[in-house]
Design a protein that fits this description.
The protein is of the alpha/beta class. 25% of the residues lie in helices and 25% in strands. The structure holds NADP nicotinamide-adenine-dinucleotide phosphate. Residues 40-41, 48-49, 53, 55, 58, 79-83, 86-87, 106-109, 111, 153-154, 156, 174-179, 182, 205 line the site of NADP nicotinamide-adenine-dinucleotide phosphate.
Length: 240
Amino acid sequence: MSSAADRAQVLDACCEPLRSALYQPLAAAIAQGGFVVAQLGQSLDGRIATEDGHSHYINGPESLDHLHRLRALVDAVIVGAGTVAHDDPHLTTRRVPGPNPVRVVIDPSLRLDRRARIFDQAAPTLTVIAERTVPDPTIAPEQLVRVATAKGGLPPPLILAALQRRGLRSFLIEGGAATVSAFIAAGVVDRLQLMVAPLILGSGRPGLQLPRIARVDEGLRPRLSVHFLGDDVLFDCCLR
Ligand SMILES: NC(=O)c1ccc[n+]([C@@H]2O[C@H](COP(=O)([O-])OP(=O)(O)OC[C@H]3O[C@@H](n4cnc5c(N)ncnc54)[C@H](OP(=O)(O)O)[C@@H]3O)[C@@H](O)[C@H]2O)c1
């Protein structure tokens, strides 16, 4: 679990004005526990990857540093199986000082290749599976987190509750769009951080996809703060 000393290590390595304006308030909120932050890096036209799923790198180096800092601040980073299948991410904090989080992948039917980087020895990894999935005998049972399936998949509140029972208290939902959208639609995300790059893809995979609304005034209009990360703009949206 991320400790006060871990969070201080992350903050000490940040520069002003981001330390005071962005990271200190975030670290204070995370310290309270039960905190969920979600992120997506996207183009000006709201794409998080090309049609083929290529997303490295939409954002610039400062945004990547920010993403690694977010990882270092939380207890666990959560991704969907699609992100592991497409990007094969490490989900470590190698760009910044600070501890690696516990890595969590939602892989309901255990379809992922266990040689993916997320399953390396750099940090512990938990796999969230559907309750009825037949476990793979080569995977240690303590690495599997079983969650009951409901209409539409594994309910995000149940996923978070199961992870909290493992002692994890703060979470970064790192992607992809389907996973971040499901957690936001379920109302369990405290902060959404959108990193918008000065890039127009013109086609590609859309970012957030929430249930359909009929009127503009039904949309979310979060309180937000805006920060510059190199050439990218970070919209830090409060969803509570
Ligand atoms: N720009 C960015 O910030 C960013 C970040 C991450 C990823 N990406 C890009 O996003 C793309 C992948 O995103 P994606 O939206 O296709 O996939 P994803 O969100 O990474 O994964 C979706 C899959 O994860 C599983 N899953 C996640 N939440 C679930 C739930 N609540 N219940 C049941 N299953 C759940 C399901 O696996 P099954 O299919 O096995 O049922 C689902 O199909 C890639 O192209 C990647 O490069 C971009």
